[in-house]
Amino acid sequence: MRGFRDAAAFLTRLPVGSGAGGGVRGRVDPRSAAGPQAGFDPGRSILWFPVVGGLLGLVVAAVYGVALLAVPAVVAATLAVGFGILLTGGLHEDGLADTADALGGGWTRDEALAILEDPTHGTYGVVAIVVGLLLRVGALAALDGAAALAVLPAAHALSRVVAVGLLGVARPASATGLGASYAAGLARGRLVGAFGIGFVVGLASLGGWVVAAALLAGFGAAVVGWLAVRKLGGVTGDVLGAAQQAAETLVLLLGTGLMANGIAPGWWR
What we know:
Blueprint: H1 2-11, H2 42-46, H3 49-68, H4 73-88, H5 91-105, H6 109-117, H7 123-141, H8 145-165, H9 178-184, H10 188-206, H11 210-232, H12 237-260
Helix pairs in contact: 1-3, 3-4, 3-8, 3-10, 4-7, 5-6, 5-7, 5-12, 7-12, 8-10, 8-11, 8-12, 10-11, 11-12
């Protein structure tokens, strides 16, 4: 279970010890310039990313379903999305903001990489976070409790897999940092296994629509990766976070589109 503990310690703020016996977020420092600290095995944890993502989606769906009993859908969706961010520490949102600032504000590769290293957020970053939150809250608010239970686990699981999958097709933008650390420990067999697990998690919650969800998630991550390769020359940990946000949002929008057309997501419905 070391891989699961590593993945949970990295992806959440829950007090889960890593395989090396660390504390909160184990021995992982996602914002460190050197990447994860000693004792953390990126390759080992990748297989568990979709499992941890699926569990996070279940928790967010549960919060949404319970909140729906007392407040309007928009308020319930805001509470649920906010609780999910609280659990993850805004790790992916931070990556989205940094990536937006770098792609929008850096004229050259060196300028863009320098912006990525700046912990503050500029206009592009703030706008990206606001638009992303509005889309996710709005999409979730259009779902009923059962649809959220179908869509959210798939969205969280698939988005984390396709984000890491960028490392299988694009090189790291720099020799240090989170992206480089994961690329160094990424074996093709583990990446394929992670995709398989993510698909199974999505299938268990979303049924046959998991195919469309996986394609949309992959498309969102691919667009972010393509922009990063053009501007930065590769991908970074922040880019992976932005890819996760894009993929999760697109899967949520898929669920909203299905509901708008009278199709209830979830194989059990």
